Task: inverse folding
C-alpha cells in the first residue's frame, strides 16, 4: 500500500492536463471516496494500456481488500502525505525525467535484510546517466534496450534522458527488463508510464540465471495476458480479472 497509493496518484496525474485538479479532488475526498477514485484511475489506465496491468497488479492489493475503517483511513493518510510532499511535481512535470521516485521509495521501505537477500543495489542517478552515455552512442528509432537487473528502471530513465536529448522519442524504442522482485517490476511498469516508454515494454519477474531466455518468455507472457484480457470491454473488468491472479 505505501508504494501502491503513490503509484495511483502518479497514474491519475498522467490522465489529465491539470494536475492541480487531481490534487484538490484527492485531498478533499473522504477515505472511502478516495478508494473509488483510485479504482477509476486504474480502470481508465488499463483501458488505455492493458499490458501495464500484468506487471503493476502487485501494487494494487489494497484496492481489492475488504478494508476496515482504520485501514481505509491509513490509505487516505498515505495519499495526503504524498500529495503534500509534492509527488505530482516529480511524476507529471518535466522533473519526472530527473529522478526515479519509486526506486527511492521502494529502497526506503525495504529492510536491509530483504535488500541483502535479493542482492539489490539501486544505481545512483548520476552513475546511471554516465553508463547510458557510454553505452548508447548509436541511437535510432526501433532500437531495443535491455536491463536484466532492472529494479525500478533507473537505467531506463537515464536512457530516456539521452534519447530525448537527441530529439528522439522513447516510445519508438523497445524496452526489456527483468528482476526477481515483483514490487520492483511493478514500480518499473509505473515508471514506464511516467517516462513515456511507450507500448513496447516487456517486463519479467524471475531469475535470469535459471531462465537465460527470459526476454522471449517476457514477450510470450505479455502476448498470453493480452489475449486473456482482449475480450474484456473496459478497465473495470480488467481490475476484476486481476483479482483472480
Result:
Amino acid at each position: 500500500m505505501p508504494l501502491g497509493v503513490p503509484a495511483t496518484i502518479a497514474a491519475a496525474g498522467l490522465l489529465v492536463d491539470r494536475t492541480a485538479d487531481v490534487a484538490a479532488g484527492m485531498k478533499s475526498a473522504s477515505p472511502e471516496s478516495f478508494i473509488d477514485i483510485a479504482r477509476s484511475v486504474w480502470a481508465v489506465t488499463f483501458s488505455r494500456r492493458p499490458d501495464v496491468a500484468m506487471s503493476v497488479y502487485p501494487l494494487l492489493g489494497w484496492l481489492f481488500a475488504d478494508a476496515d475503517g482504520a485501514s481505509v483511513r491509513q490509505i487516505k493518510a498515505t495519499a495526503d502525505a504524498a500529495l503534500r510532499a509534492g509527488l505530482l511535481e516529480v511524476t507529471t512535470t518535466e522533473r519526472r525525467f530527473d529522478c526515479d521516485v519509486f526506486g527511492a521509495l521502494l529502497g526506503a521501505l525495504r529492510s536491509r535484510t530483504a535488500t541483502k537477500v535479493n542482492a539489490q543495489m539501486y544505481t545512483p542517478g548520476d552513475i546511471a546517466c554516465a553508463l547510458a552515455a557510454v553505452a548508447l552512442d548509436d541511437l535510432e528509432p526501433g532500437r531495443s534496450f535491455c536491463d536484466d537487473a532492472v529494479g525500478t528502471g533507473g537505467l531506463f530513465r537515464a536512457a530516456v534522458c539521452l534519447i530525448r536529448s537527441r530529439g528522439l522519442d522513447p516510445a519508438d524504442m523497445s524496452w526489456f527488463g527483468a528482476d526477481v522482485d515483483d514490487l520492483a517490476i511493478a514500480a518499473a511498469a509505473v515508471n514506464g508510464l511516467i517516462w513515456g516508454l511507450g507500448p513496447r515494454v516487456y517486463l519479467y519477474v524471475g531469475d535470469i540465471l535459471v531462465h537465460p531466455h527470459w526476454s522471449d518468455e517476457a514477450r510470450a507472457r505479455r502476448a498470453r495476458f493480452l489475449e486473456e484480457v482482449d475480450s474484456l470491454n473496459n478497465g473495470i473488468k480488467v481490475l476484476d480479472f486481476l483479482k483472480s491472479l
In short: Strands lie at 144-147, 174-179, 201-205. The radius of gyration is 18 Å. The mean pLDDT is 88. The first helix runs from residue 4 to 14.
